[in-house]
Design goal:
By secondary structure, the chain is of the alpha/beta class. The chain folds into 2 domains: 149 residues, Rossmann fold; 75 residues, Alpha-Beta Plaits, CATH 3.30.70. Strands 3-2-1-4-7-14-15 form a 7-stranded mixed beta sheet, with helices on both faces. A 4-stranded mixed beta sheet has the order 8-5-6-13, covered by helices on one side. The longest helix is centred in the N-terminal third of the chain and has 18 residues. It is globular, with a radius of gyration of 17 Å.
Amino acid sequence: MSDLVEKSKKLCAYTAVDKNLKPSHKVIGIGSGSTVVYVAERIGQLENKNHYVCIPTGFQSKQLIIENGLRLGGLEEYPTIDIAFDGADEIDTGLNCIKGGGACQLQEKLVADSATEFIIVADDRKNTGALGKGWKKGIPIEVIPNAYAKISKELRELGGNPVVRSGAPSKAGPAITDNGNFVIDCDFGEIEVSKVEALNSKIKAMIGVVETGLFVNMAKKAYIGNADGSVTTLSV
């Protein structure tokens, strides 16, 4: 990856923190991904960083919180989050997102749903305008292990192309989430913005589905780091 792209990631993350984190905030959700690294870094630079409690979405974000000297908390203690920052695998014009490329979509969605304000930070490769346009790996769907065959069949009937995510090369067999479940990546092709919510509802209604990687009507703002070093702010 070019230094310019990396600089744009850092700039968009710093901008998102500087423009949105307020002294009145107390609890911050910290997501995962290469751009969120710079969110944690920026918060760790603040003189009042000990004022905040940071809630991770998974192992990577927990490590980011610890490495930047931030206070670590959990949803059990802080079920209401003031503001959350996270990355995305793809973003459409309605700020709907596909997330879960790292198999953390359930924890990520729990934190996002608990947040009063949810903000996306990502590089411009993720800002395609339509889900499934650039992200070809499919929608990550977390399922209980003994339901994967049933859910795969129902996803095919819905028009998708489901594949159980492999844990190879580090693990023989399927990838396992932090919650001990399987992930099915299901490609539905390019999804119109107006149809994202209905598709998500149909998938979630399948018995055996734990959660989807479709984040619908959750983000209010997105900060996009462009390859030329600029930052684009999107809002709904």
